[in-house]
Amino acid sequence: MTHAPKTHVAFFSGDITRSGGTENVSIMIANALAGQDADADMRYSFISLFEEGSEPFFAIDPRIARHTVYPTVTHGIQHYFDTVKRLRKLVVDHHVDVLIDIDGILDMYSLPLRRGTGVKVISWEHFNYLQNPGVPYRKLTRRWAARKADAIVTLTEADKQLYETNVHPKCPVIAIPNPMQVVTPEPRYDAASCTIISSGRLTYQKGFDMLVDVAAKVLPRHPDWRWLILGEGEDRPMLEEKIASAGLGERLILEGRVDNMADYYRTAAMFVMTSRFEGLPMVLLEAKAYRLPIVSFDCMTGPAEIVTDGVNGDLTPEGDIEATAKAVNRLIDDADRRERYSAHALDDADRFGMDEILARWHDLLSRLVTEGR
Which residues form the Glycosyl transferase family domain (predicted)? Predict the structure, then answer.
């Protein structure tokens, strides 16, 4: 008896070995899908433009294959046509049925492949429609995806509405949030902790320059407290200089990339985020999973869907250093408030459950595969 080949779903990444939130959530989803579908009719892989790391920062299920468009680090729009040609060969050689672009800018390489290969393309928005971080022509690829993609996935209902209002997509737009991990053993909040943590890539988007300004209004008032920033990125030299200028060198510490994030979450008093913009920030979902009180800028899309202001955290206006420092200082001075926020951290966590999120992905993938037959 001849069995039909499994449907091949490939997640397309710039570099899946990176330590960013986009890579984290993409691997979480792919691993969970591969686990559910181990004996089913779908298989999964990652395709990266290149892989700078010898191993991915986040563990990938061994059942998930990895491929690269280029064998070495290759940047630049000057390679556009070669990239499309190489990606087309991978899609054809590995019989990819659905290509999920985990960064919308990658649509520029994948959308041309729909003609001639029959591959279905999903544009997965990890920022929000109004933001174009790093690449000015991201706005153009979003409009292109609205006309030519087979589906657009946003992280929030608010961003779905932005797409539908601004570009009137011809394809379905589906809001599927990032999942919140289930922490085992169950976390116990440490009310005696004097450690604040923040994490993310050291980039303009994450606003760590503003976090230094907040810390400068917090740490001098509380000499027994310290603040750790977990992550690495191109802004490190600037941040090191700013931290030194503020006299916080021994109190506000750039820890770099760490392999034991759970240890930091379990021993922290609170989590603070000062991003300029987000999609749906994984770091806040992680902090929520560990039942940490949260202080966050209420930046465009994300934080307000994770944090209930005054219940399990404090939301402050984006860029408001004074208000954010006031919120952090108040939590430091009020252990009862911290414990109350922690106790309510999981009040609305069901909507970020993995089962619900996988069901939405399965529904989307099944519909696209059925349409393609």
Answer: 195-344
What is the length of the chain? 373
Question: Cβ contacts of residue 214 below 8 Å, gap of 6+?
Answer: 272, 274, 321, 324, 325, 328
**Is the C-alpha dihedral spanning 164, 111, 54, 202 positive or negative?**
negative
**Mean pLDDT value of segment 61-87:** 94
DSSP alpha helices (H): ranges in the chain? 21-36, 80-93, 107-110, 114-117, 138-148, 157-166, 208-216, 236-245, 261-266, 282-289, 303-306, 321-333, 335-343, 354-371
Q: Which domains does the chain have, with CATH numbers?
A: 7-178+353-371 (3.40.50.2000), 195-351 (3.40.50.2000)
Task: Residue 233: name the closest of 201, 204, 277, 188 by CA.
Answer: 201
Sign of CA dihedral 212, 213, 215, 221: positive
Name the 3-class secondary structure at 214: helix
Q: Rounded distance, CA 292 to CA 226, Å? A: 16
Distance CA 301, CA 128 (A): 7
Q: What residues pair up with 67 in beta bridges, in sequence order?
A: 47
* Residues pairing with 309 in the sheet: 313
How far is Cα 368 from Cα 360, in angstroms, rounded to an integer? 13
Integer CA distances (angstroms), 262 to 51, 317, 359, in order: 26, 29, 27
The rounded distance, in Å, linking the Cα atoms of 67 and 222 is 49
In whole angstroms, how far apart are CA 279 and each of 98, 216, 303? Answer: 23, 28, 9
Nearest-Å Rg of the Cα atoms of the chain is: 21
Q: What is the pLDDT of residues 242-273, one digit of tens each?
A: 999 999 999 999 999 998 999 999 999 999 99
Give me the residues paired with residue 197 across strands: 228, 271
pLDDT tens digits for range 123-133: 999 888 888 76
Residues 6+ apart with CB under 8 A from 178: 25, 155, 279, 280, 282, 285, 352, 357
- Give CA–CA dist 276/318, Å, rounded: 7
Cα angle 296, 258, 281 (rounded to 5 degrees) comes to 30
pTM: 0.81
The pLDDT mean for the chain works out to 93
For residue 227, the cross-strand partners are 196, 252
pLDDT at residue number 128: 87
